[in-house]
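name: query_chain
kind: protein
chains: 1
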Amino acid sequence: MKSVMRNGWIIGLLALLGLLLVATKVIQPNFGQSGLESLSRAALPFAFAAAAQVIVVVAGGIDLSIASMMAVASVTAAVMMDGGAVPAGLTVLVVLCLGALMGAINGSLIVLTRVPDIVVTLAMLFVWEGVALLILRAPGGGSAEWLRNIIVGGVAIPGLPPSATGWIPRSLLVLVICLAVIWVPLRRSRLGLAIYAIGSDQLAAFRSGVAVGRTRIAAYSVAGLFAAMGGLSLTMSTGIGEPIPGPYLLASVAAVVLGGVVLGGGRGGLLGPIIAVFVLRLVRMDLTLLSVDPNVTTIIEGSIMVVVVMIGGLLAVRSRRR
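structure:
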């Protein structure tokens, strides 16, 4: 019973996701394996962006440059892999290191200048956007075919008939593995505890011996790593690099809030925001299936995100007053 109460918000999100899937099936009776695969692939970069934002928000900050860092990672990967100039495996490693470096630069600037996170990351949003445009002025580049195939299609389960396989999208499996490899060890490590500590009460964490500055830099570095994964997933999905940042910033904040992470820091996890990403993507898919005008769809989607973020901000203010 206590476990249910503790995870009530996540259970509610799962129920909402289930209801939306049923509604999608009613709207589009042919919705099945291919629909789930398309949903998962579309949600992949948003999920990595949300994961990046979670780390920073839990640490008591916010990162407005995530979408720009994703753009830098995307174009870097596309340029390096164009025509097979650099092996895809080496490209992935370089891009992940680049993402961690960009995040570390963000965190270092915040710690050294003592300027609020929102101001520094807003400035870095334009810096990283400019870097992306210097690397690639227009959408282009390429991606290794085998790398693209990693996230396309479903997972074949040995021993089961073809009709029973493919229901688990490869992109979803990639997402789960990438997040688990980083989040599970981090959550249980001393660094993970320090990130939660500085987000909950920075002064108390400092008095307990936590290196607040280094912990914040590490948190932003991990966020940059997740952002790089998001940029890689974009290149893998489309086969090209996109230098213009996509709509991932507000979507990541909305998913974080809807997923139950407190904007004030110190509370929340990764599962809720990832489920929230799929909820928000499914809402957009349903509006598209209903043939709603794309401009109206954008307005509705943006309104939902703004409302969610506003509610999250109000809850954060109330929690601080207490």
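note: The chain has a mean pLDDT of 87.
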